[in-house]
């Protein structure tokens, strides 16, 4: 769902653009409760990049900040400066062709966990061993829970559909996904800054769904205590969330 471009457009409409300094304590106080207490790498590198402004992507020439959502590459930030996360399963993200790249948080996962995340554009769907794969629904429905069969089958891959809610059905009903156990995430609430008109707050942004799935998988399927192993998947998301909340507050829209 929406990330950097929405933030840039919002700032361009503000008469006074707030400048974020190295101390983000006041910004984080604006964040919603679910993003509190995360074990995140330092955001200092993003502070510096934000103050510098947009740069051209070396691959496509697009004007970007932090990363290029088209090329899935960093812009103005080095790989050594951001966290790289090892995931317990491989993740495939299937993006609807009409989903705007700049409105997707899926790229966050690809950049932060490059060895474990692969992105596809529908109708391109990889072949799956269906007894080793689950696909995750970002919106509630009549589905099975992730923990029902995770100890029966050696789960190796998880599929996420990256699209608007109205576009999801076309991909989810594709015959190539038939037979995959569907996982429902229904107890989490989104912190996404762009409200989904007519949709409940349990409809998650893609990066939120990936994070919450892995957190639950770690606890309930691997049977291990969760101590922040995947919190850095929200490295970009939490930073943008804080920036946008601060911009809204400055504009009197909080």
In percent terms, what proportion of residues is strand?
Answer: 5-15%
Which sequence of strands runs across the widest sheet? 6-5-8-7-9
Q: Report the radius of gyration as a whole number of Å.
A: 18 Å
Mean pLDDT: 77
EC number: 2.5.1.25
Enzyme class: transferase
Organism: Xiphophorus couchianus
Main location: nucleus
Question: Mind explaining what this structure looks like?
Answer:
This protein has helices at 4-12, 25-28, 44-52, 106-112, 168-172, 206-221, 235-250; strands spanning 55-56, 63-64, 66-68, 73-75, 90-95, 117-121, 133-137, 157-162, 181-184. It starts with a helix and ends with a helix. The model is unreliable at 1-32 and 138-153 (pLDDT under 50). The radius of gyration is 18 Å and the shape is globular. It has 7 helices and 9 strands, in the order H-H-H-E-E-E-E-E-H-E-E-E-H-E-H-H. The chain has a domain at 85-142 and 153-247. It is found in: Nucleus. Catalyzes the formation of 3-(3-amino-3-carboxypropyl)uridine (acp3U) at position 20 in the D-loop of several cytoplasmic tRNAs (acp3U(20)).
